[in-house]
Amino acid sequence: MRTLIAERHDLPAPLRNALAGDADAAVAKAAAPHPGLSAEQLRTMVARHGVQVCARVAANPRAPADLLEELARLDPPVRRALRAIALHPNATLPALLVCLEDPRARGDAAAHPALPAAVVAGLLDSPHAEVAEAAAGHAALPAAVVERLVAQAERAGPDVAPGTGAAAAPSLPRPGCR
Questions:
Q1: What separation in angstroms does the CA of 174 have from each of 120, 164, 166, 170, 177?
Q2: How many CB atoms lie within 10 A of CB 66?
Q3: What separation in angstroms does the CA of 162 have from each of 12, 92, 152, 177?
Q4: pTM of the predicted model, to two decimals?
Q5: Cys-Cys link to 49, which of 15, 53, 71, 76 (CB 3.0-4.6 A)?
Q6: Tens-digit pLDDT string for the chain (178 aa)
């Protein structure tokens, strides 16, 4: 019952804090993403419950950058935490570089706005399609690199072969059809 209650984000602060500090890891884990928790409370959760709460702590919108870096460096890595870190707005370059090594987190990490242009440009040659695609659409990519990609794409031809993709979907209207 406490675990279900801890999931709620409309709890009064004293109750939320009590649940976040619960001795039962499942209860603390349920409370971890609550935006009202402080960095100190999140650190205490990790110190008390370890890997059981890491992913949910990393998903907390107020998780500070240095805590995200600590969670990214855990050995062995906590894979679900890496995915949450890759999506987190406070993630830093060192944390994102770790996330780029994880199969489930790398696509999200490659799209993260904290990556500098030089790193993004290097990701274009990734053997992992989701990484290269995220890098190609990244806002930090320099204009000269974007122009080169467009020229390469034009030489290579269309991305979608005729008769495939959305243009061939029977549920979508085709141009000129009503």
A1: 36, 13, 10, 8, 5
A2: 14
A3: 57, 42, 20, 18
A4: 0.82
A5: 53
A6: 989 999 999 999 999 999 999 999 999 999 999 999 999 999 999 999 999 999 999 999 999 999 999 999 999 999 999 999 999 999 999 999 999 999 999 999 999 999 999 999 999 989 999 999 999 989 998 888 888 888 888 888 766 443 333 333 333 333 444 3
